[in-house]
Amino acid sequence: MTAYEHAPGPATLAPLRRSDIPRCVEIEHILFPGDDPWSAVAFRAELNSGAYYLGAYDGDGALLGYGGLAILGKRGDYETEVHTIGVVPQWQGYGIGGALLSALLAKADELDAPVFLEVRTDNDAAIALYEKNGFVRVGVREGYYQPSGADAYTMHRPSVSESDGSDGRRAR
Ligand SMILES: CC(C)(COP(=O)(O)OP(=O)(O)OC[C@H]1O[C@@H](n2cnc3c(N)ncnc32)[C@H](O)[C@@H]1OP(=O)(O)O)[C@@H](O)C(=O)NCCC(=O)NCCS
């Protein structure tokens, strides 16, 4: 449980619940209106796949944001992907997105897994968040987002073993 000192109220992180899916779908339509927002079916498929999903909740238990990490491969050779991260507009800028991402990356580090993600090339806030957390751009996927046709950067963050330690992480 984590409190955010500067947020409009207390916020905590916890495993995303299936009962949150309708609200996730509403938030998707607010955050990604032109980029095929995820449906309830998509969220259910993510949770059923064993991906690591967290929600951020206000003091009344209302969902403020969510983030999900897909875990691919097998023990000793995991690879992970940040599949989504989003915070409702009124709560953006208070550290919740950063906290969600840190928690997903802690899970990837626990598995000693590299992390990949795609981000719109014009999404300056998200790119800044990812670069601050050790991601580098490794490619561009043209027209990745539909129906907008927007391009995506593919970004990569090395596993703990691959890391040179310059970001404070140490190979085990
Ligand atoms: C990207 C997003 C999740 C960030 O969440 P947030 O709670 O607002 O972010 P935080 O307050 O934790 O900020 C963490 C870092 O993100 C970056 N950041 C956040 N908002 C930013 C902005 N408006 N401009 C530039 N950088 C920004 C900064 O690096 C910031 O660190 P700093 O405060 O030390 O400068 C949020 O803006 C969001 O939901 N955006 C819409 C959905 C989206 O684009 N998701 C990413 C899809 S790939």
Automatic annotation (TrEMBL):
- Listed GO molecular functions? protein-N-terminal-alanine acetyltransferase activity
InterPro entries, per the entry: AcTrfase_RimI/Ard1, Acyl_CoA_acyltransferase, GNAT_dom, YpeA/RimI_acetyltransf
Q: Which SUPFAM superfamilies match?
A: Acyl-CoA N-acyltransferases (Nat)
Q: Which GO terms describe its cellular component?
A: ribosome
The protein in question is named Ribosomal protein S18-alanine N-acetyltransferase
Species assigned in the record: Haloechinothrix salitolerans
According to the entry, every stretch annotated as the N-acetyltransferase domain falls at 11-160
In the record, the note on similarity to other proteins reads: Belongs to the acetyltransferase family. RimI subfamily.
Taxonomy, top ranks, is: Bacteria, Bacillati, Actinomycetota, Actinomycetes, Pseudonocardiales
Enzyme Commission (EC) number: 2.3.1.266
